[in-house]
Structure formats: structure tokens, C-alpha cells
Amino acid sequence: MNRREFLKRIGILGGGVVVYFSYGIPLAAAQSPSSELPAFNAFLRIGADGRIACYTGKIEMGQGVITSLAQMAADELNAAFDTIDMIMGDTDLCPWDRGTWGSMTIRFFGPKLREAAAEARAVLLEMAAESLKVPLDRLIVENGVIFDRTQRSNRVAYSDLTKGKIIERHLKGKATLEDVTKFAVVRKPFLRSDALQKVTGKAKYAGDIRLPGMLYAGILRPPAHGASLKRVDLSGAKQMVGVLVVQEGDLIAALHEHPDTAWEAVAKIRAEFEPSKSKLDDKNIFDHLLKVAPSGTVVKEEGNLETGKSLSRELFENTYVNGYVAHAPMETHTALAEVKDGKVTVWASTQSPFGVKEEVAGALGMPPANVRVKTVFVGGGFGGKSASRQAAEAARLAKLVGRPVQVAWSRGEEFFHDTFMPAAIVKIRSGVNDSGNMVLWDYAVYFAGSDGAELFYDVPHHKEISSGSWQGSSGSHPVGTGPWRAPATNTNSFARESQIDIMASKVGKDPVEFRLAHLKDERMRRVLEAAARKFDWKPGRAPSGRGCGVACGIRSGAYVATLAEVEVDRSTGKVQVKRVVHAQDMGLVINPEGAKQQVEGSIIMGLGYALKEEIHFKNGEIFDLNFDTYQIPRFSWTPTIETVLIEENSPPQGGGEPAIVCVGAVMANAIFDAIGVRLYQFPMTPERILAGMKRA
Amino acid sequence: MIEAISFKLNGETVRLKVDGERMLLWVLRTDLGLTGTKYGCGEEHCGACTVLVNGEAVLSCQTSVKDVKGKEVVTIEGLAGNGELHPLQKAFIEQDALQCGFCTAGMILKAYSLLVKTPLPTREQIIQGMDRNLCRCGSYPRVIQAIEAASKEMKGGEK
Predict the structure, then answer these.
(1) What is the DSSP string of A228-246?
(2) What is the CATH code of the structural domain delimited by A285-324+420-695?
(3) Which CATH number fits domain A206-275+333-408: 3.40.50.1820, 1.10.730.10, 3.30.365.10, 1.10.150.530?
(4) Cα dihedral value A626, A631, A635, A637, nearest 10
(5) B70 to chain A, minimum CA–CA distance in Å?
(6) A602 touches chain B (CB under 8 A)
(7) CB pairs under 8 A between A and B
(8) Has residue A576 got a pLDDT over 60?
(9) Model's pTM, two decimal places?
(10) CB pair distance less than 8 Å for A379 and B38
(11) What is the ipTM of this complex?
(12) Pairwise CA distance, residues B33 & A247, whole Å
């Protein structure tokens, strides 16, 4: 694409200011395939039509950055919020970006966007000074209009300044940023800017794009992971009117003008598979993982474990485990691909449009420059749409049949091909001295990953080791694994916070006071104290019978404390969560309303992995393929949720993940407080609770 | 078997030549181009495909198109009358009762049929009435608030 074409595409030929990026942040520059960086890539366009466009390779999947990023741009430009258009996830227009995950959008892209906006404002001020014949320091900006402070009638709007002129700037040095305390838009609660489209059915997701002549594909899937195709009889599908059957290597698909007919046709394909060689299931998986675990790396170490052991009056040794957990977004993986004149356009539900671009180019043997990925609204991701194999499937089929092809996974395919939160194990040996203080913390996590493993309590002798990551390694997981909302941190927080409670109970201390007694970190103290105050926490030794629990955690730069009250039905083992109080220090809060939505959503999603969600499997076969057996949280699970956002004027931290990390632990601790039964495995299902009661 | 089927869709009569056994969901989304109704599970477990048939919420993924012959079907695209949003749509916006938005059409139409039957529902009645509609983003508390707000705005069905 030449420069003129690019300017045309971003709609600026009529005049405007474009600020180009030069990514200085490690997560982009270090990982960017340098040959793939387009020559033209803009952060911001201020058009002669008065509209301001912000371009980002990030995508909107419900987390709300379509609103909060626009707030940041609006403030830095002193422009009205509703003059900002967010252009997201289009690989031909937007700055290269690895993907939308890890609560990184506001933390890492946000500051760059602010700099670009500040640069654009500086350019516009210079133009205004010339046009109004007023020195720069007499100019002020309000709502996209620049005034002479001494004579307000002497004014010019951004859009008038840019008419007919194209001004291009490359972001280099640090621009002077607006003082956050002067922000008019940031820190104010804003309703979602995509809500109108979403309540009227107008919002387009990948599966809603229609192209002339397009076909829908159903793809033949193996019955189990590791099963290989022996022979196949396509005749049943081929006999159906209007059905096209194609086979290219391992990709066998039936296509039709209707998706339901395409699926019907696939069901008529007779295929025989060599069974999977895997002998693993959801019970023996933990022993297997411990056997194949690679040697660990030290996350953090202080003092000396032997000294800690000798100082210990009492030792506590426990093993914590969790099975595989599905992402289960409401929108299944979907993509539409069109191959035309040697170029491919893919509309994909993905968290990584630029990843899809590379993957599709690879699958078709094309230069990545010929692939354009467009991301429309994404119907939930939670890490699961970091992997987007459906896009390459659609592109391969579109090339094979010479027509646009949509691949939209069925719910069963979504469960089968999901990249689950990995099954994982944590082993902890800890100790307290004669005064009831923690003196030893010997911690090893297997296959969850190291995030959240580092101890933030003060223990003089501690060591945390992590073996294997959530990506797994060859021969480890019999199913796909990947990042799941706050990867590793759910597993690590569950184990750590359970172990802390076990010790507090044993030494006769209140779990909040026990934590505070081991916390020098001021941020964490403040968060925990704020949560306890809001909850009206009454100190006591667990199990108190009240069903109250506490847990603390750190994720994506944010500090969190979650307190909960539960009721456990002793006859059925069912847990009903009554109330959750969550305090969070996430630095500067861009959109308090959006941040609260993320907290509520995280707490509710967290109840799923804490209490119910787990994939059952055997020999590569997945038994949970829909929401009948795989139960996710529903209305009737919903507790009262109170969110306390600690007002902070420090740089913004993550918001999409932090509130989920304590949910497993706070449930374990509240269940123990209610009935005196300690569970070492999530999910804490009614069956496990009943079994625990029997043991007790 | 291909047959002629007609029904009212968002106030307009549609006439189709279609296999009557096909599910309404796919006929809406593909043949009729109304993509606001979503596929979530295909087996009546999630409610994303909810539409109104004669004012009642049904799951279009398991409702065959011949079953709506001669009936009135309303999808999310048809809920706003004369360009004005329905009180439920307004309330969902004002309460931020959605995140990714994929379950939203189903939520709103299910809530609509709940309010037809129970114009001033208690919180418990809302939870019970909505419990088969799933939202993975966890918007439940705000959806409950939105239904409460809309119910008040509709003055218990008088509006």
C-alpha cells in the first residue's frame, strides 16, 4: 500500500493531522516481525470533518476499551468524547500489536495513545497560533475549539484548521502530557459507547458479515485428541443437494449456503479413526504432570529454607490441584475469509488480528502483506481467542472453493478445540515459629506458570519455584492449553491464600489480622483494610460457622483483596454465595463504571472455576461439549457484589483480570469457615464438599 | 421438504420457500439476513438465540420454521418501534447491562416476555425467569437492575 492509498483508506485526503507511531514499548517492538511493520501506521487522525479517529490493533471483546481508550484520547486532545471514533483490529490500518490480553491495553497502549494525542494537540496549537495570529501561550482548547484566552471570539475549530492540509507527524520524543488532575473525561463514569449497537442487534460480529456467494463450512473433527484418520467415506455428504465436499490433507469439510445444512452434511461423512494413544483422564492427570514436569526455575528466594525449617514450631505441608477449565465465550470461534486477486481478507473473532494475519499467510503460502484481517466485535475472549485456528481453516477453504467461506465452530467444537486453563499442581511446605509468625515458605508450582507465585507476605525464609508454563510442553497435556483470564494467577492465589488461612486457623488468629501481621507492603495493606472495612469484617478464628472468607492477590500491576460470605447446604454440599466485597488498587481509573463492570464480571466468572467448572476427559476424548454438563455461572448464582476502587493517581494498571484471581481462594476459605472442611482442589463441587465432610 | 411458509416478522409478512424442518435461527440469520439473533449452543442451553413468537420467548435454535407458520415473530431488530428504543433497550444501555453483547438480544427478549407475564417482578422472580439465559461476561447484576428499571419505566405494563 502506498502512502496516498493509506491516507485515502484512513479518510484524510480532505485534510487533517495524522500522528504516526513508533512503538517504543517492549511488548511490541521486541516481538514485532520487523519485515511486517507497515510503512504507514497511524495512532490518530484528526479529520477536516471534525471527527477524531483513534487506531489500535487492540480489539473490543466486552472489556470496554472501546470506551476507555476514547476517554483517554478525548482528554489529551481537549475534545468531546463523542467526536472520537475507535478503529480497532484492522491490520491494514492499525498499529501492529501482538494481541489483546494480559490486561495490557490501558497499561501499555494507553500511554502511547496519550502521547500521540498530545503531539496532535501541539501541532494544532501551532497552526492555530499562526491562523489566529496569537502567541501560543495565550491559546486554550475546549471541546476541539482553540481560543485566544484574552478574546474568546478569536477562535478556530480543529476541523477548520486542517481543511485541505495534510499534516503528518511521527511520534518521537515525549510530548507534554495533560495533567491527569485536569482531565475532564478520564476518571468519570462513562456508559459503554458500543451499547446502542449491541441492544439493537446492529453490532456486527465475525459471524454476521455477509458476502455475495459465500458458503458456510462444517469441518470433520476427530472424536478425541490424538486420534488419527484411517479412512473416510464422503459419499453421504456429496449426495446432498447443493453441498460441496472438499478435502485437503487433514482438512475435510462440507460447504453449503446454509450453515445448518453444512453441519448436517458433515454428520453424513463416515470416518474411521485410529484411537488416541493417550491414557490420561481427569483423575490421573496430576500424577502424570508431576512425572513429566521440567526442572523448575526460581521465581523469588530470600533467606534460607533450612534455617526457616529449624525456626518452625509447626510445619504445614499441602498439595493443591485444579483441572482444566474452559473459556466458553458465548461467541464460538468464527471467521469469514475471502480470497480475491491474490489477496485475502479475513473477518475473525480473535484477540490477535496480527497473529491471525501471520497464521493465514502461512497456511496459504502467501506473503503476509497480502493478508488483511478485520476484527469486528468479539463475543468474549478471556484468553481463548488468542488462538484462532478457525481463521486459517476459513482461508484454506475459501481458496479451495474460490468463494468466500465462513467457519463458525459449533459449541462442541469450541469445547473440543479450546485451549484450556491448564491442570496444575502446587506444593507448599510452610512453617510458623513459637510466636505464631510465618518463618518458612517453600513453594513449587507445576504447569500453571509463574505469574502470581511470588510471595508478597513477609516471611524471612522463602523460595518459590515454577515448573512448566500454561503453554505446557511436549508430552504434558493431552488437550490444548493456553492463557485463561489471569493465567497462572488463579492457581497460585488459590494455593497461597488457602495455605495462609490454614496456618492462621491453626495458630488461632483471625485470617485478616494474620495477613496484616505479615504485610509490610503499604499498597496491599490499604487494599485489604479497605475491603475489610466495607465488609464490616468481624475478627474471629476460622471455622467460625459464619461462612466468611478473605484472600489477597496481585495481578497485572493491580492489588486486590476479596472478601465473601457463603452458605453451604450440609445435605447437598451446594454453596450459595451471599455477598462479595472486592477492593482494588489499579492506579488511575480511566472509567470507574467500566472498571466496576470488569470486577463484577471477574467475580462471577471466577465462581465458575471455584465451584463448578472442570473438563472431564479420558483418552483424548472430551466429555463436556455443551452447557448441559459444563455448567457456567448463571443468574441464580449471583451474589451481591460491592466494589471498592482505591483512588490512585499513579499510572493505570490492569483491569480485566485482577478481580478474578482471589475467587477460588476466597471460596475455599469461606467454605472452611462455614463448615470446617478444607478443600485442596478447585472446583469445589458439591460432591467434593460432601466427600470432605465425610473425611472430616 | 421445501414448502411455502409465511409468517409475520417484525411486523412485516414474509413468504419463504424453505425446508420447514430447518431451525428458525438459521433461517433468520442466513435466509433473512437478520443477524441480531445469535447461535450460542444449538441445544437450548444458553438462550442466546431467544426470539419472541406471539409475544412468548422461544429458543430459535430448536424451533423449526414450520412451527412459526402464520405466527408473529419478533427479533431484536424489531423491538424498537418507530425508531424509538424499547424501555428494556434503554435500561440495558443506562445500566451498562452488557459487555461483549453476544447474549444481549436473547437477554432483552427473554426479559420482554417475563415482563409481559409479570409486569412488576421481584428480584427473585427476575432471577428465576432469566436463569436459563447465560452471560459469560457476568453482566447478571446489571441485567437484573436493567429489568427492574425497565419494569418501573413501563409502569407495570401500562406503557
Answers:
(1) EEEEEE-HHHHTSTT-EEE
(2) 3.30.365.10
(3) 3.30.365.10
(4) 180
(5) 23
(6) yes
(7) 173
(8) yes
(9) 0.95
(10) yes
(11) 0.98
(12) 29
